[in-house]
Amino acid sequence: xxxxxxxxxxxxxxxxxxxxxxxxxxxxxxxxxxxxxxxxxxxxxxxxxxxxxxxxxxxxxxxxxxxxxxxxxxxxxxxxxxxxxxxxxxxxxxxxxxxxxxxxxxxxxxxxxxxxxxxxxxxx
Amino acid sequence: xxxxxxxxxxxxxxxxxxxxxxxxxxxxxxxxxxxxxxxxxxxxxxxxxxxxxxxxxxxxxxxxxxxxxxxxxxxxxxxxxxxxxxxxxxxxxxxxxxxxxxxxxxxxxxxxxxxxxxxxxxxx
Lengths: 124, 124
Hints:
The structure is a homodimer.
Chain A: E1 13-16, E2 20-23, E3 26-29, H1 31-43, H2 46-53, H3 57-70, E4 76-78, E5 88-90, H4 92-111, H5 113-121
Antiparallel strand pairs in A: 2-3, 4-5
Helix pairs in contact in A: 1-2, 2-3
C-alpha cells in the first residue's frame, strides 16, 4: 500500500490564452462557451454537458442561447421530440466555430512560447 | 447644433486574447491585473489607479497583493511616508512583466489574424 504523502500546494505555472469574440455587448464565444460546445458534442445533450461542466442546465441553456443568437446559424441544435428527445448536437457552424476557436488558442500559444517562458521565469 | 441620432446597438465584432498566467491556484497576471499595472504606472498611486478603473481601493490593493506575492519581486512598490506618501510605482520587475504580457497579447493577435477573420465571418 502506498504511503500517503501530504498534499502540497500546486505552484507549477500554467499559461492560458483565453480568446474572446464580442458581437456588440454579447460575448459570442470565449473559453467557457467553447468548453460547453465541446461538452455538448461529447455528451450529446445540454443536460449532460451542463452536468459534466458542473453548471446548471439553465446556465448552459442561456450560454447556448447567446451563442446561437450571435452567429449567422445556430451552433447547437436540439431535438424536442421523437426518440432523440432532449438530444443536442453541434451544427456545421458549431463545429466550424469550435475548430477556429481551438486553432486560435493553439496558434497563440505557439507564437508566444519564448515570451511565456520569460514571463514564467519572473514567478517566484 | 448637431442633430441627435438615436443610439444604435453596437454590433461590430471585437476580438481579444486574454492571456492568463497561474501560479498554483493564484492568477499571477491576467487582463484585469495588467490593466491595473498600467493604471498605477499612469496615475502614480493605487487610489488614483483604482478610481480610473472604477474599482474600489480595496479590490485594487488585493489584486496588487496577489501579483506581488506571485512574482519573485514585487511589481508595485508603495511609499508609506515622506512627501510622496501614498505614491505607487511599477518596479523593474513590474515593468518587465507588463511589457511581456502586452507583447504576448500583440503577438497572439498577429499570429491569428486569418483565423479571427474566419471566425468573425461566422457572426450574423
